[in-house]
Amino acid sequence: MPDDPYSFAHLTKAASLVRLSGVGIVLVSIAGAFAATAGWLSPGRLDADRMIDRFEAVNGEHPGFRRNHAKGVCFTGWFESSGNGARLSTAAVFWRGRMPVIGRFALAGGLPMMADGPAAVRSMALEFQSPDGDRWRTAMNDIPVFPVKDAQAFYDQLAAGKPDPRTGRPDPAAMQVFLARHPETARALALIKAQPFSSGFGNATYNSLNTLLFVDGARVARPVRWSMVPHDTFVPEPAGKPADPNYLFDALIARVKDSPVQWRLVLTVGQPGDPTDDATVPWPEGRNRIDAGVLTVMALQDEDDGACRDISFDPLVLPAGITASDDPLLSARSGAYSESFTRREGEAKPPSAVQPGTGS
Q: Can you say whether residue 348 is alpha, beta or left, with left for phi > 0 and alpha for psi between -120 and 50 degrees?
């Protein structure tokens, strides 16, 4: 038996949102933060196909691109586990040591050529590649909570937030009706608006928003949410919008070329009574937080040929030691990711807007 059971050597794994005028536009920006739906509602009412159809109806059809988080860039690097996460889960990702990681930075929304904006929700998606062959895929966003709690609300919100062709803005009356029916969304938006965005991808904190169950060696399951907390100092995004339509991505490209960029993986352990089925509600302060290791981003690649191109960051691709909670958005996202992947894989894809090799 190895001396260190967690060693790889012995084992063979907003304030910024307020700048957009109108609650409707806030919701449109956040709408891309998670795709949502599978066969979790009764047949004929809502499924993954209908959800992706609605994304296309709102954003237009963009063959070859993801229907959500359409504008993005791939990255490669590694995760250096501290071994501390093994208290919560037997997953190999938490064994002490280093494993490769493939990931993607992106903007929420279904427009692959959209201009970067001061209120654009940013995402970090990851695939941890453990040596035992298990994979953990997770997609996180730089907002504190998600604005809707289930797939039907997400679907309805997309319709309510669709821009009017005449004004380019959502219909305020339609959005007012939606918010009246979903007071949890109004509460979540207040939390989102109260948190300023960072000045870029590299100094943003990315949150899981959804809850998973971490299972330890004694088969005890605990609810966990997690965050990637940047080593780079937080700087709030300045007022105004730069002329460069790729200014967020260009700044990230320059930052990674200068030196590797790092984040700490922080696991937050829920207590009895903390909601596991509602991503619009934050957990109270004071929960146990475990520093599980450090993510290092070494290089960026365009998604036309990059390592992330053919990865669907399905939140239910989980290793042994991590299982789904009762959060309905998990199965919703899983189904929609699958449908989006199926459609884009059968389509010819134009070049992406972000090309790290050329600086834009």
A: beta
